[in-house]
Design goal:
348 residues, alpha+beta, Ribosomal Protein S5, domain 2, Pdz3 Domain, 2 domains, six-stranded mixed β-sheet, six-stranded antiparallel β-sheet, 18 strands, PDZ_sf
Length: 348
């Protein structure tokens, strides 16, 4: 009897381990389509549209031994090493913060481009630099956090990334600088003693952080975007189209269920994203009729290094054929390509 109990106990431990232990791998699979007007509201905007603009997601989960083995048997589940998902220099929290920053930037660009296309003015303000991650062994370790917004350095306003680079270039190892920053909506001062930047052969004095521009945009009418549960830049194109659709009296959707993906860049071009094959599968499953896919160009250098690499559009077309969807896959290099396609559509 005791022997049986021991065997059962071991089996329970093994099963729990297989189902709960987290591996250094992620599983990507098709996500869902989400009507963008649920996330984006233009003040007094036109919401009387017969169709819909939809952003696409992929589902990402950290693998356990059980889900890892299961994913290997599934055609449309992809196993990814943690280094393919997360920058080796960042931890989980910094990864999440970077994803939210990418989403924030995509919202900024979407507003900027949509208002530009609608012939409306915007006011852009540079707010400082946003800390993406703090390097281990760097000067700022234990002093700055990912998500901090640096506003001034030694009393001088940080009005561009280049200003910060130039300011630090004039400093020596061991010099101290005082940073005025915003953290969790509260402002404070932090003094940092400059040290060599980790993971480089240079002995240049630095803070030991990676960072990006922090900008805000003021629009009239106001645009409210609620995207707390979505990270990354890939919804940028669909955000742009939805904002423009609400700004204009016409129905850009023409009554169709329009989906798509792609980073919205500040010049109006549509950037490459990951997981487009899974987004095509999800869009077809959720009844989308039109799918905008970034028609990015693969440079000869990249093609030589990664012979199997292809454009997002090529992957989308191949996936559409595999699943035999009737959904129309439309290549877009710029937001104008998407608008031109919608303009020529006959109303449904």
């Amino acid at each position: 009897m005791k022997k049986k109990i021991s065997i059962y106990a071991v089996l329970i431990v093994v099963v729990c381990f297989c189902m709960l232990y987290r591996l250094d791998a992620y599983i990507m699979k098709p996500g869902s389509a989400y009507d963008v007007h649920k996330f984006v509201t233009v003040d007094n905007g036109d919401m009387n549209d017969a169709g819909s603009m939809n952003l696409m997601t992929v589902a990402m989960q950290q693998a356990t031994p059980f889900t890892y083995v299961w994913a290997k048997t599934q055609k449309y589940q992809k196993l990814m090493d943690i280094k393919q998902v997360r920058n080796p220099l960042e931890d989980d929290e910094e990864y999440n913060i970077r994803q939210l920053k990418l989403m924030s930037d995509s919202q900024f660009n979407a507003k900027y481009i949509a208002f530009q296309k609608a012939g409306l003015e915007t006011k852009v303000t540079f707010d400082g630099v946003f800390v993406l991650n703090v390097l281990e062994g760097g000067a700022a370790e234990g002093l700055l956090n990912a998500g901090d917004e640096l506003l001034t350095i030694d009393g001088q306003t940080i009005d561009s990334q280049q200003m910060l680079v130039d300011f630090l270039t004039s400093k020596q190892l061991g010099d101290q600088v005082t940073l005025h920053l915003k953290r969790n909506k509260k402002e404070q001062d932090v003094t940092v003693t400059l040290m060599p930047i980790p993971n480089t052969e240079e002995k240049r004095a630095g803070l030991g952080i990676t960072y990006a521009e922090s900008k805000s945009i003021e629009t009239h009418p106001d645009v409210v975007m609620k995207t707390e549960d979505i990270g990354g830049p890939s919804a940028g194109l669909m955000f742009t189209l939805e904002i423009l659709n609400q700004l204009l009296d016409e129905d850009l959707t023409k009554g169709y269920a329009v989906a798509g993906t792609g980073e919205m860049l500040v010049d109006g071009s549509v950037g490459r994203i990951g997981g487009i094959d899974y987004k095509v599968i999800a869009a077809d499953r959720d009844g989308m009729e039109i799918f905008f896919a970034p028609d990015d160009e693969i440079s000869p250098t990249l093609k030589a290094k990664y012979p199997e690499l292809e454009s997002n559009y090529a992957t989308a077309v191949k996936t559409a054929k595999e699943i035999d969807t009737k959904m129309k896959i439309v290549p877009v290099k710029t937001v104008d390509d998407a608008l031109a396609y919608l303009q020529q559509l006959q109303p449904k």
